[in-house]
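Before the break, one more example. Copy the sequence into your notebook; we will annotate it together after we see the structure.
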Amino acid sequence: MMIHAYDDIYLSDAQKILGHAVDFALMSLNIEPDVFGSAFAVSHVSSQFAMGNPVYVAGMNGCELAREVLTRVNIHFDDTEDAMYLDKSPEYWAGWALAFYQWYSSRSFIEILKTVPLSEIISMYPVFHEMDIMQFADRMDEIFKEKYPFTRLKYKRLNCNLSQSELARNSGVALRQIQLFEQRQRNINNASAITLLKLSRTLSCRMEDLIEFQVAQ
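Here is what the structure looks like once it is written out:
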């Protein structure tokens, strides 16, 4: 069973808040989609939102969230009064769907928006907005598989300029085990905590950064 960063009782509010934030930033403050998407991704706000910090997923409205993001990353904007509409725009849907996918996948916002920019999510509105949200989530998973065919372990290892044997030697994890993880013949999600800890320390990342969200069968 997938473990999520915060309880699903907060999910609906979180989706609405991020939906209104995107709509307000783009439609009322006239910020370009990928400018706001990038600002949100790199800001402290996105990491706290992903963790389910009540201040962000329940304690403010979307307009306030948008302002805080832009202020924190020093992007100038001409402020205006709050605007949240009953008719939901493609921009609103993009934020709403993005919040769901982050919660569902447990990927960071920066990883998601680096792979699928906010403008691309908005462009998915005509096809997906009337479908079940899981259809959107499945498509996002497909995009990740298309853009990142290797396991996350392999990407981290290559980024550190380590061979499999060097990773094995430096981490103390058996070479054959590393090979099986990278070939997806063994599910790294089922690895012991000590194995993940050894690998993550050697690769200078978090244990959860090695987890596969959708392991190929």
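Residues 8-147 form one domain. The mean pLDDT is 93. Try to locate both features in your own notes.
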